[in-house]
Amino acid sequence: MASLLGDGYGENRSKSSLWRDHGLVEFFWERVEGRWVGTHFSVQAHRLQYPEPRLVNRVLQDRYGDFPGTVTFDEVGVLLADRGVPLREVPYRAEAGEMRAYWQPDAQIIVYVIEGSYYGRAGDLYRVASSRIGIP
User: Fold this and answer.
1) Band of residue 120 on the pLDDT scale cut at 50, 70, 90
2) pLDDT tens-digit profile of 30-82?
3) Burial tier of 128 (Cβ tally within 10 Å: 0-12, 13-18, 19+)
4) Residue 127 in contact with residue 45, Cβ under 8 Å?
5) In the chain, where do the E strands start and end?
6) CB 112 within 8 A of CB 29
7) Strands 25-32 and 35-43, how do they pair?
8) CB of 83 within 8 A of CB of 68?
9) Exposure on the CB side of residue 102, measured as CA atoms within 13 A
10) Which of 6, 16, 85, 120 would you call most buried, defined as having the most Cβ atoms within 10 angstroms of its Cβ?
11) DSSP β-ladder status, 35-43 and 88-90
């Protein structure tokens, strides 16, 4: 299975599932009828709080430049609003008081934002993930 992001990744594979971690971006597959089928991906934005130069894959750095640190939900919200992309907050009871979740129905994307202090600084983007099952 070739990777658009190169060969620098961690991998966790079983007979029926595969996960590849490219530092900032992760991809997931399941084996269905003998073939690998992509199921979802995530961007682990919270990892940007660590000053690890190799965290962001070289392919992403070459295309988009430096990733200097965390991103706030306000920054992302403004960019999406300017492009007419709506987000709506959805209940996220699993991390009530620590994490908020926002749903983008057209792209079936969930945006997680730090609310408390356990996972980092309140208001920072935590993770963006595709969802094949819909709203969490």
Assistant:
1) very high
2) 999 999 998 999 999 999 988 776 778 888 888 888 888 899 999 999 999 99
3) buried
4) yes
5) 10-13, 17-21, 25-32, 35-43, 88-90, 99-104, 109-114, 125-130
6) no
7) antiparallel
8) no
9) 20
10) 120
11) unpaired
- In angstroms, the CA 70 to CA 77 distance is 14
Burial of 102 (0-12, 13-18, 19+ CB in 10 A): buried
Strand order in the sheet with 109-114: 10-13, 17-21, 25-32, 35-43, 125-130, 109-114, 99-104, 88-90
Query: Residues 114, 122: contact at Cβ < 8 Å?
Result: yes
Q: Which of 66, 73, 22, 28 is nearest to 44 (CA)?
A: 22
Is residue 43 packed enough to be buried (19+ CB in 10 Å), middle (13-18) or exposed (0-12)? buried
